[in-house]
Write a structure and sequence with these properties.
- The chain is an alpha+beta fold.
- It contains 15 helices and 9 strands.
- The N and C termini lie far apart (63 Å).
- Belongs to the Nth/MutY family.
- InterPro entries: A/G_AdeGlyc_MutY, DNA_glycosylase, Endonuclease3_FeS-loop_motif, HhH-GPD_domain, HhH_base_excis_C, HhH_motif, MIG/MutY, MutY_C.
């Protein structure tokens, strides 16, 4: 039987991870939010850092959003951190610190979708709610030979119904953890371990030589190219930063004053740009390009081509901050890496 083989394999091969030693919904929820679109190896130190600073949901709720974003810095997909903080405040203040114990109520929490609600419901409360993440899609599509795209409306519905049929209703937590772990360690995207796989006698993909072509995924949306020119103002040990607003990337994170353009700009084009002139307000300056090679920063649907322009001013900077204060602000990793590298 599929589920019993998965659970048997899991008991022998499971990795020792801190969130597997607890049924505390706060810790399970924190780990699941962090591991969305993030490898375990990358997420683990962040999880440990958050648990150390915020042992309870109330302590996370009491932190400022800026502090939470700073703690999250480098993990990417920052909307997760903002949703995490919003949900912590809701649970702590409106639900008296208690997470809901059903899939339906969990799914109402900000930032909690089908997968995360199923994970918390099964791991913490033994609800027979099947999880379907990237690992599970891969295992099920290969074992059953399903060629329906996993990111199509039809595919999402089909794989969810298949997962409902397969879950061990008496051991939902073990089964869900097991099938995800199986996909992460055994049925890997590249070079899966088919030779010693406990499911190899019934795997359609192995039988029909479809391992490399499953799961099927619809092509991603076209990647957008963006050109960022950051202005690094310097005078008297101070510089300028600003907070990104709106609903685009890096919302509420800090960066240097920015000129976004349709393509790469020359030093003359920067000097004559209306935004640059507005910032300078007629003051004397020396302008130079810091990075000769344009830095390419790749996000899921955007490639950001970045130049850092250093602007030395003779006069003082209004509303400037000390160089030493820079590291206190939450920043996109692109900016944080520049701050570490550049000798202010």
């Amino acid at each position: 039987m599929f589920s019993s083989k998965i659970i048997g394999w899991y008991k022998e091969n499971m990795r020792v991870l801190p969130w597997r030693k607890t049924r505390d919904p706060y810790r399970i929820w924190l780990s699941e939010i962090m591991l969305q679109q993030t490898r375990v190896e990358q997420g683990l130190p962040y999880y440990q850092k958050f648990i150390k600073h915020y042992p309870t949901v109330s302590q996370l709720a009491d932190a400022s959003e800026e502090e939470v974003l700073k703690m999250w810095q480098g993990l990417g997909y920052y909307s997760r951190a903002r949703n995490l903080h919003a949900t912590a405040k809701y649970v702590a203040r409106d639900l008296n610190g208690k997470f809901p114990d059903t899939y339906k109520e969990l799914k109402k929490l900000k930032g909690v979708g089908d997968y995360t609600a199923s994970a918390i419901a099964s791991f913490c409360f033994d609800r027979p709610e099947p999880v379907v993440d990237g690992n599970v899609y891969r295992v099920l599509s290969r074992y059953f030979g399903v060629e329906t795209p996993i990111n199509s409306t039809t595919g999402i519905k089909y794989f969810k119904s298949l997962a409902v049929e397969l879950i061990d209703r008496s051991r939902p937590a073990e089964y869900n953890q097991g099938v995800m772990e199986f996909g992460a360690l055994q049925c890997k995207p590249q070079s899966p371990s088919c030779g010693d796989c406990p499911l190899n006698d019934g795997c359609v993909a192995l039988e029909k030589d479809l391992i490399s072509s499953l799961p099927v995924k619809l092509k991603k949306t076209k990647v957008k190219d963006r050109f960022f020119n950051y202005l690094i103002f310097q005078s008297g040990g101070e510089t300028l930063i600003q907070q990104r607003k709106g609903k685009g990337i890096w919302q509420n994170l800090y960066e240097f004053p920015l000129i976004e353009s349709d393509g790469e700009l020359s030093i003359e084009e920067i000097e004559n740009h209306p935004l640059f002139k507005e910032r300078l307000q007629g003051r004397d300056f020396e302008l130079s390009l810091y990075n000769r090679e344009t830095i390419t920063h790749k996000l899921s649907h955007q490639h950001i081509y970045t130049k850092f322009w250093v602007v030395h001013l003779q006069s003082s900077i209004e509303n400037g901050i000390s160089y030493h204060e820079l590291e206190e602000y939450p920043m996109p990793v692109l900016i944080a890496n520049f701050v570490k590298e550049y000798s202010f």
